[in-house]
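the two lines:
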Amino acid sequence: MDIVATLLDTLISAAFWTAVLRIATPYVLGTLGELICERAGVLNLGIEGIMTLGAMAGWMTVYQGGGLWAGVLAAAACGALFGLLHAALTVPLGLSQHVTGIGVTLLGTSLSSFVYRLVLPQASTPPTIVPFQPLPLPGALAQTPLTYSALALVGGIAYVLYRTPVGLAVRMVGENPAAAEAQGLNVTALRVGAVMAGSALMALAGSFLTLSAFNAFFFNMVNGRGWICIALVVFASWRPGKALVGALLFAVFDALQVRLQQASGGVLPYQVFLMMPYLLSILALVLVARRASYPHALMVPYRKGER
Amino acid sequence: MRLEPRADSPLSLQLIAPLGAIAAALALCAVLVAWTGAPVLRAYGLLIEGALGSRFALTETLTRATPLILTGLAAAVAFRAKLWNIGAEGQLYMGALTAVILGGGMIDLPAGLLVPLVMLAAMAVGGATLLGPAVLKVRFGVDEVVTTLLLNFVVLLLVSMLLEGPLKDPMGMGWPQSAPVISAAELPKLIARTRLHAGLAIAVGLAILLWLIDTRTIWGYENRAVGANPRAAAFAGMPVTWIMLRTALLSGGLAGLAGAAEVCGLKGYLTLDLSPGFGYSGIVVAMLAQLHPLGVVGAAVFIAAIFVGADAMSRAMPIPNYIADVMVSTSLLCMLVAGLLVRYRLRRG
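prediction for all of em together
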């Protein structure tokens, strides 16, 4: 009974839901970014590295005296640039999306560490910046502007994907590029554009970590969030609305896990709780795998005139 | 401009491709070195000298290459069968965990029996770690890339939990590290007064063995057939599921062996920083080698030379040693393009 009471207390507390929205934000942004890439037919395993790069670039811009929104812009620009790299190798050249993505992740992660160490050779404790402050709203609504941007983007991206010609074109090159080509659409341009836009969102997810959730950059701070986003895209069956639901659900479990960890008072090692998000993602993948309806041309390179 | 498949790609081209990719990667990274303000040529000179310039440097490079050969082979055999095992890092730690548990004095056997036992057990555990994602792939159609990546984090947390709990060395001054393995579980040194150990001989021996299996046996033929076209292989009556699972066991086993060899040959005990990303670098090694088992040995030595050389370079100059990771990842991307140019030619129009 005690545990149930604690659980109920937690679930009706505003602090809990504040945490849920905060935890969900990078997952929402990252999942939307990956979703756009995959809807256009390109798996982007560069996500983990692009998030790290976004976290570093955003933080570094502010640390060097730029404004917070300048940091957000810098992160998005770096993300788009790395998206261009991934797209250039996988779309016109048709290279393995798996291996290229891993390469982009390794490059993004190592470049972030390199630049950070170059600028701050002897920083033993990471220097801090003044991050985004929560808006003066009551209860769980007291979130930073980036969280509200993420929520707005869910609607915006759903609208673009399902209600505009550009969205239809992006979905079409992910389902049947030959048919899209026959309609006079430029498959290469659409795929490259989608990957760049998606990667910019991934970098935004990373910058949320350094500009909103925390105030410093740590080397391993993304910590698998990118890979979890990839699982969330499958879980959400490539739909923005479901991506939001999935990210929120995931954040609820993550926030609960932290509170259970505190409540359990060291009965179980803390690592058991930290494993939960990863195991939960694998479980989610197993549950939906049977009825997952992948975009038909996902991971299939398209070369004009080749069948 | 368009790409046109080559009818056949000559061996010379296949050998030039990785060298060209490496040259391109080093040229690209020279921009970063120049950005730090260091003289580029001297910096690269220091890198080469630090990796290959002395007998000591050479043995250090080969020591570093040992786990990279094994994780490179792990990636190569899996990728050949289109099994995307990105979890070699986790499998490596599972093997290392097995080594400190079995080699920590729990079993009292002479070295001639204990070392093979520990190595084989580490391979079994590493293989079993990949078997999970492989079963999920063939049984439920769950993408193994994400599951193997996520398992890396789970395994590291498991190791962290054990190192702070039952496996913690009481003599470890409070650091989260395991007790050292007993001397009967240690791999012998190859050259006295260096860190080079028998793990290198095992790794090179396995590379040759895998090459022989690949080219001379039905096993190798089936593996390649499944990688090239699983449906055609199934139609030809090959047991595709079993081939996938045994590839997973082998790939995970090789990564697990890398962990055990690091523990029993080099470190002696297990910490959370046993591997500076050997599992991920193994993917680069395999790609540079174009998934060829013998090429893996050469590619691993090259990647090891970059890591060892960059350490020496960053000690002498204000260049962060993360430059090594940047060089390695750039090499991977350049190699992908070079590999394309081996298979296709550029045609105008």
